[in-house]
Design brief:
Structural class: alpha/beta
Number of strands: 9
Strand order of the largest sheet: 5-6-7-3-8-9
CATH superfamily: P-loop containing nucleotide triphosphate hydrolases
Largest sheet: 6 strands, mixed
Strand content: 15-25%
Number of helices: 10
CATH architecture: 3-Layer(aba) Sandwich
Bound molecules: adenosine-5'-triphosphate, magnesium ion
Number of domains: 1
Length: 265
């Protein structure tokens, strides 16, 4: 039996009177690629924030790599890397500087840091651009850099909140092949959210579907398809939640970015 690297029991988060995450339980096995799927506002990011010590649960328990992040947040933080739904790179720094800064934050010793930065930037095919300012990068390059940065301190778990959102299909495929290679090469457990169901079906070993803060199904894609008598995960999702997962949507932030681009012209 492979051990569970993530265990979540009866986790709940309220914002005032509103329950965003409602008594959810699930586990992720070491070395798995795990997809956490749900429509807009289902509670995915809230769950990731609780797992990664950014938000306190209202109730419930979490174990990450045998550590309770509520009791030992600093120790827990060493065991995971995270790529947020909203970009969090410093545009005015180079790719290398973004990596180096992060390494300093995580107290990665200088020699080790240098080696690891080179290894990761090469792996994600950004080494040639290491001295370019991030603001000159394409969306796909920024995402790759965020993933590289999340891996700098050799985490055992990588959390990816919508890693491929807003990217073209070819770039999305590239990102997934890097992630799958990493998963194999370093045996990193990957916990990701996406609203691209085909991607989830292709890459995930295991899936949980959350809707209105409740887990409505979990298992392999195959199990969910059998359970709902459907042909693909997209249809299984529809059968389980009664709705299609949101299509490409423009968030307020994307809208502002587009508007800024237009104004500059
Ligand atoms: N800080 C907050 N205060 C109040 N309500 C919040 C807060 N953060 C999130 N919510 C609400 O909690 C619910 C879950 O939000 P969350 O961001 O976890 O959803 P999500 O599944 O990540 O959605 P998306 O697919 O849009 O990223 C939503 O209804 C959201 O409006
Ligand atoms: Mg979210």
């Amino acid at each position: 039996m492979t051990e569970n690297i993530i265990e979540v029991n009866h986790l709940t988060r309220k914002y005032g009177d509103f329950t965003a995450v409602n008594d959810i339980s699930f586990e992720v096995k070491k070395g798995q690629i795990f997809a956490f799927l749900g429509p807009n506002g289902a509670g995915k990011s809230t769950t990731i924030k609780m797992l990664t010590t950014l938000l306190n649960p209202t109730q419930g328990n979490i174990q990450l790599n045998n550590v309770n992040p509520l009791n030992e947040p600093n120790l827990a933080r060493k065991s995971f890397g995270i790529v947020f739904q909203d970009p969090s790179l410093d545009d005015e720094l180079t790719a290398y500087e973004n990596m180096d800064f992060h390494g300093a934050l995580y107290h990665v010793p200088v020699d080790l840091r240098k080696k690891r930065i080179e290894e990761l930037l090469k792996f994600l095919e950004l080494w040639d651009r290491k001295n370019s300012l991030v603001k000159t990068f394409s969306g796909g390059m920024k995402r790759r850099l965020e993933i590289a940065r999340g891996l700098l301190h050799h985490p055992k778990i990588l959390f990816l909140d919508e890693p491929t959102i807003g990217l073209d299909p070819q770039t999305r495929n590239h990102i997934w092949s890097y992630i799958q290679n990493l998963n194999k090469k370093e045996n990193i457990t990957v916990f990701f959210t996406t609203h691209y169901m085909q991607e989830a079906e292709l890459v995930a070993d295991s899936v949980a579907i959350i809707d209105h803060g409740k887990i409505v199904a979990k298992g392999t894609s195959q199990e969910l398809k059998e359970q709902t008598k459907t042909q693909n995960l997209e249809d299984a999702f529809l059968a389980l939640t009664g709705k299609t997962i949101r299509e490409e949507e423009v968030t307020g932030k994307d809208y502002m970015r587009m508007a800024h681009k237009l104004w500059r012209k």
